[in-house]
Amino acid sequence: MEPFKVACLGNVLVDVLVRPVDTLPPKGGLLPVDQVEVALGGCASNTALALSRLGVKTSLWGKVGRDHFSDFALQQLRQGDVETSGMRIDPKVSTSATLVLVDSKARRSFLHSVAANDHIHKKDLKLSKLSTFKHLHVGGYFLFPWLDGAPMAGILHEAQRKGLTTSLDTAWDLKNRWMKALKPCLPFLDYFMPSEREVKKLLGHIQTRKAALAFLKLGAKCVIIKQGEKGSYLLHQNGREFHVPAFKAKAVDTTGAGDCFCAGFIKGLSLRWSYRDCLRLGNAAGACAVSRLGATAGLQSFRQVVSLLK
Question: What is d(CA 219, CA 253) in angstroms, rounded to the nearest whole number?
Fold first, then answer.
């Protein structure tokens, strides 16, 4: 049997994490914090690194600049055994970065520079290589606007025609297009994986089953809604429906928890687990992720994640 290889497409960036930040200093003022760390960030890169740590062969497709941040990001990816030949290095742009302010309750606020992610075009992607993969995952949709709408729908359609399954995880839409940019993609998604917060912006409500049915009606085959500390919910077009509660975890930083959930769910798919068990594995991966500062620092191995399932 051919190995289950995943292509992760989307935003790649570097996080500068500061903790705890419960208030901002006055202009010209200074406040002490306990931690300032630099880490790999970005929905697609977080999921790619988490998948690799879970034992899934993964390639990351995106764009960075030629600068210190890109050197750091690519080093982290290669050390994590993520294949990076699909990364485009563009000296004309800077690498995207986010200042992540984490408060004492592990809640996050972000200051984000879109930078290189604002310049990802379809021509930058090695779509001819899609047939060498089993699954295409799009991470951070809405944060690389040149691929929004019809271009991404075309990429997903091409992936499905080449025999891949597809999944897409949304991020916050800085341009406030939401459903207009998403709708063309839904018919070409095997798995649509938004958070509750994003569902509310897309549909105007967070009635979980009603929301999932709406996305199915628009063409998605399976909808997974990430519910944070409440767990996760799945509704498939064939009627299968599950809610799986979250695992107990002491949250230090919730950055990347949703990205690691996606990695856990896809890992379950690679093992041909039931959807319920895929949700459990995703929840476990998310629980590991929140245990340390940084998007993927808390998730280190498949053995670690599986230990929560016992």
Answer: 34
Which positions of the chain have pLDDT values less than 70? 1
Q: Angle, nearest 10°, between helix axes 68-79 and 43-53? A: 30
Measure the CA–CA gap between 193 and 232, rounded to whole angstroms: 10
- Put simply, whether the predicted model's pTM sits higher than 0.90 gets the answer yes
- Strands annotated E in the chain: 5-10, 13-19, 35-41, 57-64, 87-89, 97-102, 108-113, 135-141, 165-170, 191-192, 222-226, 232-236, 241-244
Task: Compute φ and ψ for 180, nearest 5 degrees.
Answer: -60, -40
User: Tokens at residue 164, please?
Assistant: 């891949």
C-alpha to C-alpha distance for 163 and 237, rounded to whole angstroms: 19
Omega before 20 within 30 of 0, i.e. cis: yes
Q: Give the largest Cα separation in the chain, rounded.
A: 62
CB 47 within 8 A of CB 137: yes
Q: What is the structure's pLDDT at 254? A: 86
